[in-house]
Amino acid sequence: MTKDHHDTQKTPAEVQDRIWELAKKIDICMFTTWDGERQRSRPLSARVFRDQDAIYFLVDVEGHKNDEIERFPYVSMAWVDSGGHKYAVISGKARLSNDRARITQLWSDWDKAWWEDATDPDIRLITVTPEDGELWDSPNRAVTFAKMAIAAVTGAAPDMGDNAKVNL
User: Fold this and answer.
1) How far apart are CA 137 and CA 11, in angstroms?
2) CATH, domain range 12-167
3) In the chain, what are the domain boundaries?
4) For residue range 40-99, what is the model confidence (pLDDT) as tens digits?
5) CB atoms < 10 A from the CB of 125, how many?
């Protein structure tokens, strides 16, 4: 495990657990691809399955992200709990498929906003195999505000909680 600007008392295993926990709990992430010149981000609903070492997304057959994944399969996903000042980022390799059985397994009523049902031929599956992650796990809002206020008065950098990078 490498450490960034902030330190953590968590073990690498605890950091991994927390990243997976936040990704599953928060659901919607900013899914970022590369088109060869720029990064592109869009909000997607993540189906997080740690026991399968996979994060799944149902997407439409049309879309730039599909072409970008085919050409540049490494992606990043960022989850934000802004009210709780908790953030998780996972990077990994994505693969686009037409795995109808998995699409049917992952289907939920929320998906009806985009498709009629799981048999819609326009649905595709993105499967991301996580490789590494980073965690920013700050204390609650009141504590965060107090630490920022003290830092503003004293000119010292505030300790905003745990920050750590790990391999997943």
Assistant:
1) 13
2) 2.30.110.10
3) 12-167
4) 999 999 999 999 999 999 999 999 999 999 999 999 999 999 888 899 999 999 999 999
5) 20
